[in-house]
Description:
Elements: H1 3-21, H2 31-45, E1 48-49, H3 52-57, H4 63-70, E2 74-77, E3 84-87, E4 96-100, E5 103-104, E6 125-129, E7 140-145, E8 153-162, E9 166-176, E10 180-191, E11 196-199, E12 204-207, E13 213-227, E14 230-244, E15 256-273, E16 276-293, E17 298-316, E18 321-334, E19 341-357, E20 360-371, E21 379-388, E22 392-403, H5 407-411, E23 423-437, E24 442-462, E25 466-490, E26 498-515, E27 534-544, E28 547-556, E29 559-560, E30 568-569, E31 572-585, E32 588-597, E33 616-626
Parallel strand pairs: 4-7
Antiparallel strand pairs: 1-6, 2-3, 4-5, 6-7, 8-9, 8-33, 9-10, 10-13, 11-12, 13-14, 14-15, 15-16, 16-17, 17-18, 18-19, 19-20, 20-21, 21-22, 22-23, 23-24, 24-25, 25-26, 26-27, 27-28, 28-31, 29-30, 31-32, 32-33
Amino acid sequence: xxxxxxxxxxxxxxxxxxxxxxxxxxxxxxxxxxxxxxxxxxxxxxxxxxxxxxxxxxxxxxxxxxxxxxxxxxxxxxxxxxxxxxxxxxxxxxxxxxxxxxxxxxxxxxxxxxxxxxxxxxxxxxxxxxxxxxxxxxxxxxxxxxxxxxxxxxxxxxxxxxxxxxxxxxxxxxxxxxxxxxxxxxxxxxxxxxxxxxxxxxxxxxxxxxxxxxxxxxxxxxxxxxxxxxxxxxxxxxxxxxxxxxxxxxxxxxxxxxxxxxxxxxxxxxxxxxxxxxxxxxxxxxxxxxxxxxxxxxxxxxxxxxxxxxxxxxxxxxxxxxxxxxxxxxxxxxxxxxxxxxxxxxxxxxxxxxxxxxxxxxxxxxxxxxxxxxxxxxxxxxxxxxxxxxxxxxxxxxxxxxxxxxxxxxxxxxxxxxxxxxxxxxxxxxxxxxxxxxxxxxxxxxxxxxxxxxxxxxxxxxxxxxxxxxxxxxxxxxxxxxxxxxxxxxxxxxxxxxxxxxxxxxxxxxxxxxxxxxxxxxxxxxxxxxxxxxxxxxxxxxxxxxxxxxxxxxxxxxxxxxxxxxxxxxxxxxxxxxxxxxxxxxxxxxxxxxxxxxxxxxxxxxxxxxxxxxxxxxxxxxxxxxxxxxxxxx
Length: 634
């Protein structure tokens, strides 16, 4: 599409904004009411939402540990202190978006997000979203958010210790009133990762060496409520990480280490007029990466800037109809080579009718994207949801999505390929879900079948120098089942409530290549490396007003580590048990927690040659003081 047309569309968005600001408001239609309406819509789209109990039990852990034990996602873990990436439904890690403040955290260089460097206690809601082009990538999205609890004064300090000689520290400060709210969180993660492991090639127990990992960070959120209908938010996330990479089984020694620094700044404005809601986000992200291996006298330094600008306008019409118009713009470029840039602009329109026919809801989305490097086709999605008796529903959706190459894939020296094309996916999803809320139990049960084909899949290959190419086509299909069951044992006295809680996830996924790099390619029809066919995770336990005990388990099936399925890692199952105690008095809150990980001391590998710890223990404490509770506000 030509530049004049794009300018006309941008002007239309601006004029629509001015028209909205000129309209009077309906009494009571505040930003809080807008958030409630939006949350109702999102709840129907999300497949998995973490609850407060899970976040409490994983308070001093990272996002990798939380999702690895409590979701359908497959986490590719490179060992203690190492990189951890996510795969949803057989996709690559770069195909899954990690979002904060409506902006992707994935590296502009690699397209990856390291889950092991994201502390759980920075957020109070974590959602996984599948097959939705308005929020997700080809593989889906993990959305990190906070629903802020406003209090005039709130101070919280926590610390934790692991038997691997790892420590965790966190300080949370809040100050606010009806006009403003500030929250600052300081955190430090210091890991020595000291444990002994069995070395199969040396047939002996050896200590893990060169595995130190240190993360320091600050997150700050400020909200300024101009009135009931206008809010400005300032969000800052600064973080630095220095980690050593230990030797794998097949290495004698390791001197590898990484230094990673990230700075993220986001300015947000949101308002609501009549039946309209508008959100504008402007950000600046900077990342600097340094890798060094003194054994071979090698060092690599790289970095990137990202400037995202998002505008979203939502209108709730009459007769159960609403639409969303959004514009997203992103400019990415290398720090030392500003001429090597990637500029992306897209405009999308989403429609939703909750009662097109009795019990039938229709959703549709269409999106067009332009870049300075390549052409992309129209993206789209349509979804039908039919409400069944007994608080149940079934749905079917179909859509087309894309992933653009990263800066490293385009411009890395040596090996980058500026002639790459975007990956294009087409996905079909069919599912049924029931949510039963009864006096004697609360039940959520869902089952989903999915089919997805990705063309122009980007693969790095070559001789001495690896280069990315669009050579592969991958077909992913499978099923996912989720069960959540809460049974009240004692519920009359609010100070002594006791519930039995159960949660089970099971997934079966085939992710095979249907197009190879050359004739008679042995990878054709074979499972993509490190994608398990079977996964089962679950937890059960007791949750009391003052304490909770939870047993968690996970099973991960065979993972092939070569494209022709000639080598594989054997399945493994690990378990953990955690307990926490809550003590509240006169505005003070004390939370104590303890956990035993890998309860049965299993030996397993997440990546070939990367050792994992056996049984180890955690203890932690959080002490907080709150002056006065006030209503929740987003």
